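Slide 14.
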Amino acid sequence: MLLILMTVKNWTPPSSADIQTIIDELNISIKKAAHMARIGDRTFKQWLDPTDLKAPSQSAWAIFEYEVRSMKMGYKNIDHLFEVLESNYRDQKN
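Slide 15: predicted structure.
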């Protein structure tokens, strides 16, 4: 199980431009990005609308960032990263 510890203190949601930059950088669709954040497409599209005041929730954004980090490390997604880590751990135990 993945445990994410977060603090509300000093957290500011990303701007729509920041989010769009990440999507462009990774060359992923809005549908894929929404899945990575564990939210619906419509909600994710609201994140991208600079006139919409609906900011990303801290938990959805944190999950999205972990997915992005795992992809930048060369894994398909965070689940793939954990599978590799668990496999390496089992191999070292044996």
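Speaker note: Residues 16-93 form one domain.
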